[in-house]
Structure prediction request, 179 residues.
Amino acid sequence: MNNLKVHTYDSAPEASRPLLDNSIKGFGLIPGLHGIMAESPELLESYQILHQKFQQTSFSKEELTVVWQTINVEHECHYCVPAHAAIAKAMQVDESLTAALRNREPMPNAKLQALHDMTLSVVRGRGNVPAAEVEAFYAAGYGPKQLLEIILGLSQKVISNYVNHLADTPLDDRFKPFL
Prediction:
């Protein structure tokens, strides 16, 4: 038994409470994932910083969704796939993109397909990507900055996906319609 629990604001360590305030401001509640991460204020803070920094990258809202969901689906994260479908809807990303990602279908255009393919290559190869694939990514209109930004998104998703696997995080009611 892993003994990971979903903390409430009151049960969380004192150092996590300001971080949970951030969660409440951003989501209107404490997502179950954040409640579990609250056990380690350092982990929760790192996750929140990575989330914020990834949203500040050069990627559009569609591209953010492609990176997040490509990783979530590849990692088979029962929590993050519906959670990021809800986030994509809130960001007004076309639902057909989210559905294509979830169902492992082709992307709606060549540039998003190149981003999806590179993200999968980075995940599956653990950063060992053949030069020809990197060149194809660049030929699609991306550059070294975006290649590195995929790693930032992956860093965020490894934290959340792995915590969800270890904790078997219960899905929040607000994300259940996105299963």
Observations:
- DSSP finds nine helices and no strands in the chain.
- Residues 7 and 35 are 4 Å apart (CA to CA).
